Structures are given as structure tokens and as C-alpha cells.
Amino acid sequence: IDIHLRTGAGGVHAYLPLHTPTSSSSSTKHPSSNRASSSHRSSGRSEPFRSRAWYPWPYCPARPLEPILLVLLCLLGVFIELFIGNRGWRPLYKSDGHFADAHANNWQHALMYAGFAVSGVVELIGYFTPLPPGTEQGFLSLAFLVETLLMGTHTKPNALDQLVHTLLTGIMIACIVASAAEIAAPRSLLLALLRAMLVLFQGTWFWHVGAIMFKDSMAWDMNDMGGVMLVPVVFCLHMVLICLGTLSVYLIMRWLYVRHGIISSPAEPSQPRPASSKSFTGSHAIVGHDVFGRTGHHDSADWDVVLDGQLELTDVCGSSTDAGVRRSYAA
Fold first, then answer.
1. Looking at residue 176, what DSSP letter applies?
2. Per residue in 171-191, pLDDT tens?
3. pLDDT in tens, 8-46
4. Is the Cβ–Cβ distance between 298 and 329 less than 8 Å?
5. Can you tell me the distance from the alpha carbon of 305 to that of 288, in angstroms, rounded to the nearest whole number?
6. Are 7 and 277 in contact (CB under 8 A)?
7. Nearest 5°: CA angle at 147, between 143 and 150?
8. Checking DSSP bridges between strand 2-6 and strand 13-17, what pairing results, if any?
């Protein structure tokens, strides 16, 4: 268990692992799917990474803002595709009973939005009610699958149109594979980063496809083979820039973590941990506070440690020692 220790000397705060004997009251394993309890816990607590279909926003971690925005924006997209620019809803049929081929693309785009709206609804359900592990990623993969099938069957009147849609479909297939792989390997940070990079890649390429297809430019002439040959160059440029951008963000975040002492620099030699730091000097007790007031439900419990005597904080989380000098605080 990670316990937040509040000492009485200088307001020092640290997280320490406490190993206690297993008892009937504390040996129950609790599921990690309760969003409210996980968002309640402090972000400074060192917890194993677990991928999710969505992640809390730093400034509002207790609210599922990402699923809410996903549902609202997708419903707005459906409304725009089927209503805006037309007198009333775009019908599926013409007056002679045949399908309205002029509106077919709009209905395809609307169903793409609807697939992601369903994924957002499942994420909201998972926020309030525990779902089987991987359910949210499964519906996200389903949304990518719907998008892939609809985008891959778009009519392509020329070689340039066909190529840009084929490349876009390849990114969507990669999104399906990455999202499904997260179900099998939820602890893989690389898979979570890969999915984020692929979604960003899909978005930037969507924008560029719009510029190629609908911007009046002589360079992207639909009947010119020069444009067809240059499309893979631009596609690969998107890929390289996104990979370099992700690596740059990682290096910047690691530099900030090292600078603020959250993690240690690999150049700094690690000091052996003293034997005395493995246990507490004095007596201690664990007290649980159910912050939501639900008796017997410990998913949202906040644990404190009551200490009597001296507590030695020895190089825990890199914030309790200076130059290897061990300190003792009165708790």
C-alpha cells in the first residue's frame, strides 16, 4: 500500500510503501475500474500504468470530460452531415424510390460519427458502473472498424482520390490493431503511445486530404500523375514529424521530472537503501477514511498512517535526503 505520511517537522510530505500483515478487513482486492475512486487519489502517488480508452484532464480529474466532449461533438457532426446545407434532413431515397446517391457520403460520415458517439457513451457508463476489463477499448476498436469500412468503400473517381483514401484506411486499420492490443496488454505504455500517435496521424492526414481534394490548387490536379507520386512523400513526412514530436515531448517531460526531483537522473549513482528504512521506528496504525461515506465500500477509501515515535525517511521518492544525509522526523 502507498501511504501519504504527513510529518510534523517542516511540513515534509512523502509517500512510503507499508507492508502489513494480511487481515480479513484489508486483504480484499478491489477493482480498479471505479473512475471516481481512481480520480480521487492523488496524482503524485506512484501507481502502475494501465492504459484506458480515455484519460482525465489535469485540471478536472474527477469529471469524465473527454467522453462527454466525444459524445457531444460526434452528435454535432451527425447533425451537420444530415441537416446543414440542405432544406431539412438529407433523405435516403429520391422521389422515384431509388437511393439518393448524392447524399450517400453524408450518411456514411454520419454513421462514422455515430460509432464514436457510441464509444463515448460506453466510456461514460464505465465511469459510473464497473465494466469488464477492456470493454471501453473494445468499443473504441469497433468505432475504428466502422470508420475503416465506411471510408474504405468511398467512391474514388480518380487515382489521386483513391490513393489518399487508401493511405487513410491504412492508418485506421492500425488504430484498430493498437486499440485491440491494449486489451491484451493493458500495462504497455508503448501501445498507449502508439494509439495516441496513430489517432493524431489520422487527424493530420484527414486535414491534408481535405486540402488535396477540395482546395483549388494546380499542384493537386486530379488528372496529374505528379500529384499521385508526391502523396506518399507527404504521407511519410506526417509520420516522421509525429514520431519526432512524440519523442520531443517525452524528452521534455523527463527533463522536467528530473529537474523537480520526481525521478532521478540516470547519471546520478543510486545509493543503497539503509536496512533501517525498511521498517518504522515506533508503533504505527493504519486508519481508513471512506471519503464518500459508503460503509463497507473501500474503492474510494483514503488511507492515513498514525505514527508514534520516530520515523526515518530515507531517500524515498528522492525528496527526503540531501547529499545522502539521513534525517529523522518526529511524527
1. H
2. 999 999 999 999 999 999 999
3. 444 444 444 444 444 444 444 444 444 443 433 333 445
4. no
5. 9
6. no
7. 140
8. antiparallel
